[in-house]
Amino acid sequence: MAIREESKRAKEVASKAKKPKKKAAKKPVKSKKVNKPKKEVKETKNPIVNLWRYMVASVKEIKRVTWPSRKEAWRLTFAVIAFSGLLTGLAVLVDYVFTNIVERII
Q: Global pTM?
């Protein structure tokens, strides 16, 4: 009886091993964005038209910007203030040291 059970198990293992594994479905390849040719803009000497074009381009650029969150903006602001304070302190210290050196020489 034990031999039959072992042979059944061996056959089950062998049949499972022979089954080909399913290949993962390939993801569809995304096509690259094709840049549309930009419209040719006629050069003009009119300052009003140039100012208008500049303003329109600026608004488009601002819409594309990824703005930081409020928390990140405050964190970066404090980092700039701290770094500025450290550099100011370093400049004052160097100035004090060189002033004393120059006064002792003179």
A: 0.44
41 to each of 44, 50, 58, how far by Cα in Å?
9, 11, 16
For residues 5 and 79, what is the distance between their CA atoms, to the nearest angstrom? Answer: 72
Residues 38-69 pLDDT 10s = 777 677 788 899 999 999 999 999 999 998 99
Sequence-distant (≥ 6) Cβ neighbours of residue 44 within 8 angstroms? 50
Question: What residue ranges do the domains of the chain occupy?
Answer: 68-106
Residue 87 vs residues 71, 74, 77, 96, 101: alpha-carbon distances, Å: 25, 20, 15, 14, 21
Query: What residues have CB less than 8 Å from 50, skipping those under 6 apart?
Result: 44
Helices (H), ranges, the chain:
2-18, 47-64, 70-105
Write the single-letter amino acid at 49. V
